[in-house]
Design a protein that fits this description.
Blueprint (H helix, E strand, L loop, with lengths): L36 H8 L6 H10 L17 H12 L2 E4 L7 H4 L9 H23 L10 H25 L10 E3 L14 E2 H24 L14 H15 L2 H14 L7 H6 L27 H5 L12 E4 L1 H6 L19
Antiparallel strand pairs: 1-4, 2-3
Helix pairs in contact: 1-5, 2-5, 5-6, 6-7, 7-8, 8-9
């Protein structure tokens, strides 16, 4: 299977094994499928790097099948949400419904006639938020920066990943900031230490938390990288300072703070070390390799770490033996294609005879 690029996601899972004494070895006191903040904190006393497993396990949620709580083949993490929102925007269109995955999004019915899609998106992001909050609870809360440098690194990554989740949730389930920033939006959970159900925070409160978390994540990751601590060289599966800055630029842009968004974007282009793609790469690469220098945050998807059919390539790529090749074609909308100027290299991605007009 081809590689896949996650513009806002990804990493690999790490299984965390908890040692116990012989007399307790046959008794599972917390049989819930998740490692709790209490368990992490207890084990952190003898292994200060225990948060590594929790952090990497959280990343694995972003590309795993069924992470939205269903067994559907259009439920496989962040990229399934990207397909959904592209279809809902009208920029991506479907021709044919042999199997019908994503057909509700193509008909613009996700938030009107179908409940399953709304459930999948909601559950996926709050599942990530829960895992991030477990990390914060381990160190005494999301305002308690750990002293251990490795734990500080994963604390900052959790800040960015939780902010990314809340940013997407507020855009999916609430009014936009410029329309009504005081509208009720989402429950804002910052801890899993209590089972209390929270009321809805406003759009503005969600954005304030997103931006606060991202700014803190950027500062910590930037300082750690200056000390030689951070994402291992040659890897892209964890959030670094530049990825966090990219998410922050999106938040500012969506909030309407265009100068802040432009300044951060210029900083990334000039100083990050991630070059802009060349025209040859834009046309010839197929975006199929994480080794392309421009990719800031990516994970190598293979047949060994994902299911075969319910994947991005299975739903989008005609040449992958899956749903797209069987009749559920995804194409550019004709109106969008006509808006792309001939001078834009990206127009060569599409053949003018294969377009859909709604």
């Amino acid at each position: 299977m081809r590689n896949i690029i996650y513009k806002l996601t990804a990493c690999s899972a790490l299984i965390v094994l908890t040692l116990s004494s012989c007399k307790d070895s046959f008794l599972e006191e917390d049989p819930n499928g998740y490692i709790s903040s209490g368990q992490i904190k207890e084990n952190a006393e003898w292994n200060p790097n225990i948060m590594l497993g929790q952090a990497l396990g959280t990343y694995s949620t972003t590309f795993a099948w069924k992470t939205g709580g269903t067994t559907n083949h259009d439920d496989f993490g962040q990229k399934s949400i990207d397909i959904t929102t592209d279809l809902m925007s009208g920029d991506l269109a479907m021709s044919g419904e042999t199997y019908g995955w994503f057909s509700d999004a193509a008909r613009l019915q996700c938030n009107t006639t179908t409940k399953n899609r709304a459930y999948m998106l909601w559950r996926y992001y709050y599942r990530i938020i829960k895992a991030c909050n477990e990390i914060f609870d381990t160190v005494g809360g999301d305002e308690n920066v750990p002293e251990n440098e490795d734990n500080k690194n994963y604390y900052a990554q959790a800040k960015a990943l939780r902010a990314h989740s809340y940013f997407n949730l507020v855009n999916l389930y609430a009014k936009s900031y410029d329309i009504d920033k005081n509208a009720k939006a989402l429950p804002l959970y910052r801890s899993q230490a209590t089972a209390e159900t929270l009321g809805l925070s406003t759009v503005e409160e969600i954005y304030e938390r997103v931006i606060t978390d991202l700014k803190e994540a950027v500062e910590i990751l930037e300082n750690l990288e200056e000390e030689g601590i951070g994402r291992p060289n040659g890897t892209k599966d964890q959030i670094d300072q530049w990825t966090a800055k990219g998410i922050l630029a999106y938040a500012y842009l969506t909030k309407g703070e265009y100068e802040n968004a432009a300044a951060i974007t210029a900083d990334i282009i000039k100083n990050s070390g991630y070059p802009l793609m060349s025209q040859a790469e834009i046309i010839e690469s197929g975006f199929s390799s994480i080794n392309i220098g421009s990719w800031m945050w990516a994970f190598d998807i293979t047949k060994d770490n994902t299911a075969g059919l319910p994947t991005f390539w299975g739903q989008i790529d005609y040449f992958t033996y899956s749903y797209c090749s069987a009749g559920d074609y995804k194409m550019i909308d004709k109106n969008l294609y006509n808006e792309i100027p001939a001078s834009d290299t990206r127009k060569q991605w599409f053949h003018p005879s294969v377009l859909i007009s709604w």
